[in-house]
Amino acid sequence: MVIIDKPIKRSKVKKMAQALFGNLVKAVVDIEKEIMAIGGELHSDEEALLLENGSDQRNLWGINLYPDVDDDQWIEFDSMINLRPSQGNITRGINDQKIRKKIAKIVGKLIKNEIPT
Known about the structure:
Elements: E1 2-4, E2 8-9, H1 10-20, E3 25-30, E4 35-38, H2 43-52, E5 60-65, E6 75-76, H3 97-110, E7 111-112
Parallel strand pairs: 2-7
Antiparallel strand pairs: 1-4, 3-4, 3-5, 5-6
């Protein structure tokens, strides 16, 4: 597991996916710090890593990334850690469209086909 706070190549995510689940990698995004943890077997492992590094749990959202899928479909908003009745999220998905858009923006900033020079 690693915390991503600077852009990485999408090919690295693809290698992680192949090593773990074949076609996907789990990730947890901190929407406040605009960082993410990837490469865990469970979203809760990545969540714990971010919490240990100062993240606030209410800002952490679990997703799955499919690096071989087109950009507009490669993020799946599904994780058990997203069940948060106290925050109005009563499903494993992410119901708030603003949060979904913010996550997509953060993922797009951190995972690139090529690292900017």
